[in-house]
Amino acid sequence: MVIAVVIAACVLLAVLAFLLPRLSRHPQNGAQRGLGVGSRAGSKAPGVLGRLLSKPFSSSSRAVGRSGSAGRRARGRLPF
C-alpha cells in the first residue's frame, strides 16, 4: 500500500512539475519533509534495524525529488 502511495505521489509531482513548474516546489518539499520524518523516526532504532527501517523512506524521498526535477527538466526542453 505504501509503495502505491509513493508511486502515485511521484506521478502526480511529475505531472504537476511539467504543467506548473514553479508551483510544484511546495508539494515536492512537503512530500520530502514527510518522508524525512519517517526516515528519522526509523533511524532511531538500534544498529542494523535502524538502517533497514529508514532506507525505504530515504529512497522514497529521493524518488519524489527526482520525479519533480524530471518534470521541470522536460518542461524546459520544450521548443515553445
Features of this protein?
80 residues, mainly alpha, 3 helices, 82% helix, elongated
Q: Please tell me how large the radius of gyration is.
A: 14 Å
Shape: elongated
Percent strand: under 5%
Please estimate the helix content. Answer: over 70%
N-to-C SSE series?
A: HHH
- By DSSP (H or I, 4+ residues per run), the number of helices equals 3
Note the main sheet: none
Quaternary state of this entry equals single chain
What is the tally of beta strands?
A: 0
**Low-confidence spans:** none
How far the N terminus sits from the C terminus, by CA atoms, comes to 39 Å
- Report the mean per-residue pLDDT as an integer: 94
Structural account:
This protein is mainly α. Helix content is 82%, strand content 0%. The chain has three helices and no strands. Helix 1 (2-19) runs parallel beside helix 3 (47-76) and helix 2 runs antiparallel to helix 3 (47-76). The longest helix is centred in the C-terminal third of the chain and has 30 residues, at 47-76. It is elongated. The chain starts with a helix and ends with a helix. The mean pLDDT is 94.
